[in-house]
Amino acid sequence: MSVLPSLNSIKVGLTILFDGEPYQVLTANFVRMQQRKPVMQTKLRNLISGKVLEYSFKAGEKVEEADLSKRKADYLYADTTGIHFMDTESFEQISIDSEVLGEKAQLLKEGTQADLLYFNGNPITVSLPPKIDLKVVSAPPSIKGDSASNVTKGVTLETGLIINVPLFVKEGDVIRINTDTMDYVERIQ
Q1: Domain locations in the chain?
Q2: 7-65, which class in CATH?
Q3: Domain 68-127, CATH
Q4: Whole-Å CA distances, 154 to 19, 185, 187
């Protein structure tokens, strides 16, 4: 863990140690007011709990960079005890609480590769690829004349997730989904 030299070192995307836990900097604004010492106003997200807080770092305050490591893992399955992955290097099986991914867990199918983020040797969060391809297993037929602008229909994917897609998507198609927004991006085949 390295101590950051100045307030200007606190940048968006940086992972710091705050109150003994890893936080990611979401926003960072350097503020200098008359007759006051400069501060770095930040918005921080706890990587373990997901909670967001606002904090102003003052000049001279020690800020440490969090010592995190990232490892590739393949999704195996989910059950009542959590979401299970296999480390691609050590072949060790790792379990993560289902609440870490929330509804995004429905994007995972067997073999999906993700990055596990470790803090103090323990997995704390999962970073999914930006886009995932899934097969449509159930889609209502589109009706002729339903061609008004931006008309969508709900389809069921191979993982059980239901999302809205354009009318031309049919059962058996493979579609690409944005993992951040959980929205349809494009039809692959």
Answers
A1: 7-65, 68-127, 131-187
A2: mainly beta
A3: 2.40.50.140
A4: 44, 14, 15
User: Please, what sign has the CA dihedral across residues 139, 146, 175, 183?
Assistant: negative
Second-level CATH architecture of 131-187: Beta Barrel (2.40)
Query: What is the per-residue pLDDT for 149?
Result: 65
Cα 98–chain centre separation: 13
Q: Look at residues 180, 88, 87, 185 and name the one whose alpha carbon lies nearest to residue 133.
A: 185
- For 24-79, what is each residue's pLDDT tens digit? 899 999 888 777 888 889 999 888 887 899 999 888 888 888 888 889 999 999 89
Spatial contact of 55 and 18, defined as CB atoms under 8 Å apart: yes
Record the pTM. 0.73
What is the spatial distance between Cα 135 and Cα 91, in angstroms, rounded to a whole number? 27
Is pLDDT of 85 > 90? yes
Q: How far apart are CA 100 and CA 143, in angstroms?
A: 40
**Band of residue 92 on the pLDDT scale cut at 50, 70, 90:** very high
Query: CA 56, CA 70: separation in Å to the nearest integer?
Result: 28
CATH fold match for the domains 68-127 and 131-187: yes
